Model the fold of this input.
Amino acid sequence: MKTVIRAFFRTLRLVLGPIVLLKERLTQPAGVLRAPAEQAVVDQQCQGLALYQFNTCPFCIKVRQEMRRLSLPIEKRDAQHHTAHRDALLQGSGATKVPCLKITEANGQTHWLQDSTAIVAYLRERFAA
Done:
C-alpha cells in the first residue's frame, strides 16, 4: 500500500511540477528599477545571501517572486537535486526544510532564516525602495 501511495504522489509531482513552473514564469512581477549605483550596492549586499530551495515548491516560488519584484540577484541553491547543497542546508540550519535563506554578514557570521513569510519580510525590510 505504501508503494502505491508513494507512486501516486510521485506521479502527481511529475504532472503538476511543470504546470507550477509555467505559472511562475507567466506571472513574473516587474522588478524595481534603481539607479545603476544604487543597484550596484544592492548587488554587493546580495553576495552574502543564498536561497536554498526546491524548484517546484510553492513557498520557494513565493520567495523567488519577491526576489524578482525587488530585483535581487540572490544565488539560488537547489537542495532537492544537489546533495552538496542539501548537506550544507542540513548542517547549517539543522533541517532540510525549504525555503531557507543563508545570510552571511560582513564579519563572517552566518544566520539561517526559514519560512517563506519570514524571508519575504526580511527582504522587504532590507531592500524595499
Observations:
- The helical segments are 2-26, 36-46, 58-69, 83-93, 116-127.
- The chain has a mean pLDDT of 94.
